[in-house]
Amino acid sequence: MGFIRDFDWRSLEAIHNINLNSLLDTLISLAAAFVLGTLIGVERQYRQRTAGLRTHVLVAVGAAAFVDMANRLTGHEGAVHITAYVVSGVGFLGAGAIMKGDASIRGLNTAATLWGSAAVGACAGADLLLEAVCATLFVLGGNTWLRPLVNLVERAPIDGKSSEASYSVCVICNRQDQRRIRGHLEVLLEAAQYPVGGFDIHPFAGNDVQIFATLLPISVDVDELDRVVERLAAVEGVNQAFWSSSVTE
């Protein structure tokens, strides 16, 4: 008891660093990062992306906490150094969201959005609240308002000679069902607005055949092509369905 009585509580760094004004500033920064990160995360969650609501909120709040801490401890110069580390650190986090397979790379937009959430949090942590709001609006705009333009560009025909990738859909079925299956294939691709340049039919194992539908050179949404293949695989008589791409230099 004597030790407790004689102890100088003022020597504790944690007690000494309590500053209500600074605490209020930190709460404002973290709250702003939380709200703005939520706005970005809700849009990502709605579209069922790899990184959803909680991930974007945590990235924004984490970036804000690091920058705010550095700003308080060493001033603006320290905040600048920590921001640089946040940028590189979130780059590694974004790399984990990128998946490669089936001749396609997915998750680039998710990784870029995580980077944007970190920028929003860093602005909030540096007490640049209006800048954080502006960054949020631009990130949301890139993920929502630009979608009609992306769809318009993807549907525009392109010069086959300048196209770097060609796509084809393959269906394996019994020889007796090939006419019916080809009709299904043509209807599904037409519904997805992917014009067919031509069909090729080749013998396969046993009594099966391979039906190849080569798409005209347009930009392809791999997610939509996956859905077309899934519907094909569910058609009676289809043994296997898949799509492939080839790249020309």
UniProtKB/TrEMBL annotation:
<dbReference type="GO" id="GO:0005886">
    <property type="term" value="C:plasma membrane"/>
</dbReference>
<feature type="transmembrane region" description="Helical">
    <location>
        <begin position="79"/>
        <end position="99"/>
    </location>
</feature>
<feature type="domain" description="MgtC/SapB/SrpB/YhiD N-terminal">
    <location>
        <begin position="30"/>
        <end position="150"/>
    </location>
</feature>
<feature type="domain" description="MgtC-like C-terminal">
    <location>
        <begin position="167"/>
        <end position="243"/>
    </location>
</feature>
<keyword id="KW-1003">Cell membrane</keyword>
<feature type="transmembrane region" description="Helical">
    <location>
        <begin position="20"/>
        <end position="39"/>
    </location>
</feature>
<keyword id="KW-0812">Transmembrane</keyword>
<dbReference type="InterPro" id="IPR003416">
    <property type="entry name" value="MgtC/SapB/SrpB/YhiD_fam"/>
</dbReference>
<comment type="similarity">
    <text>Belongs to the MgtC/SapB family.</text>
</comment>
<dbReference type="Pfam" id="PF02308">
    <property type="entry name" value="MgtC"/>
</dbReference>
<dbReference type="Pfam" id="PF21770">
    <property type="entry name" value="MgtC_SapB_C"/>
</dbReference>
<dbReference type="InterPro" id="IPR049177">
    <property type="entry name" value="MgtC_SapB_SrpB_YhiD_N"/>
</dbReference>
<keyword id="KW-0997">Cell inner membrane</keyword>
<keyword id="KW-0472">Membrane</keyword>
<comment type="function">
    <text>Virulence factor required for growth in low Mg(2+) medium and for intramacrophage survival. May be involved in regulating membrane potential by activating Na(+)/K(+)-ATPase.</text>
</comment>
<dbReference type="InterPro" id="IPR048640">
    <property type="entry name" value="MgtC-like_C"/>
</dbReference>
<keyword id="KW-1133">Transmembrane helix</keyword>
<protein>
    <recommendedName>
        <fullName>Protein MgtC</fullName>
    </recommendedName>
</protein>
